[in-house]
Amino acid sequence: MKALKRYQYERYAILCNLAYQPAIRQTQFGFSPRGQRVIHNRFGQPMIRVLWNDESDEVIVVIKGSHHPYDWLLNLALWQRHSKSSHFPYSIHAGYHYLLYQESRPSKNSDHLGTSVIDKVNLTLQPLIQKGKRVTFTGHSSGGAIACVLADCLERSNPHCVKRVVSFGQPAIGGASFIRHYLLSHKTYRICCDLDIVTFLPPIPFIYRHTGKLLWLYNGKIHENTPTSHRLVLSAISWVMRPFSYHLMSKYIRNKDFFDER
Question: For the range 24-33, what are the long-range contacts, defined as Cβ-Cβ under 8 Å and sequence gap of 24 or more?
Fold first, then answer.
């Protein structure tokens, strides 16, 4: 697996952060004036942005995480459901299944009522793929989990069209069946920062599992593919010791910039 470059990490992280804003001026980030398509959720709020530059071969699909109280409640739907339309051959978290198959509110005249989010993503990407572009999926939190499913679905209908999948703070989305059938584990990067509790969710061992390459940003280093159990133990120790860590001189030295030079 090729390493994820720093500039790629920064670009995807910035776009995932901007995804929570009502609007993005895509030209400020190197995309074409007409290089953005917004896919709305059932409430008419932006959920997914498809971004591209006419001169580049990469399309970036950015998926927002839970941002509405109802979406937070869907995180509690811990049972699993299979694809409604055979988009993928495995079961996934029921709440995320609902987010994928919810009706996408029309955003332009050519949109049709009743089109699901997953179908609208595919319809949006097909013309771009036909132009020879490859697709990167990225998302934060539940958006990262959904990114995996959307990417896998697209790869099944358009082999070799997915460039990579990069998620930030992603919860697990499926179990053994998902791990067995997911086509893109060699192109998937899961970024976990320090003690992010969401990356341990749902808290049902063996029923929910992760796939892809884990990049754990912890103690100033990048740790690759650290086992979940080991990460959980280190996180628990860190939670207990955190109040004492502020007593270390390294903390005082790190905060030297608070003082003006005199």
Answer: 24/49, 26/51
Give per-residue burial for 215-249: e unless 16+ CB within 10 Å, then b: bbebeeeeeeeeeeeebeebbeeeeeeeeeeeeee
Enter the pTM of the model. 0.88
Q: Considering only residues 225 and 124, tell me which one the structure prediction assigns the higher pLDDT.
A: 124
Give the DSSP per-residue string, 203-245.
--TTTSB--SEEEEEETTEEEES--HHHHHHHHHHHHHHHHHH
Measured from the Cβ of residue 117, the count of other Cβ atoms closer than 10 Å reads 24
Question: Per-residue pLDDT tens for 188-208?
Answer: 999 998 888 888 899 888 899
- Contact assessment for residue 172 and residue 208, using Cβ atoms and an 8 Å cutoff: yes
For 30-37, the CB contacts below 8 A with 24+ separation are 37/124
Q: What domains, with CATH codes, occur in the chain?
A: 6-258 (3.40.50.1820)
Q: Give the number of other CB atoms < 10 A from CB of residue 194.
A: 11
What is the rounded distance in angstroms from the CA atom of residue 63 to the CA atom of residue 257?
A: 36
Residue with tokens 């299944």: 97
What residues contact 109, with CB distance under 8 A and at least 6 apart? Answer: none
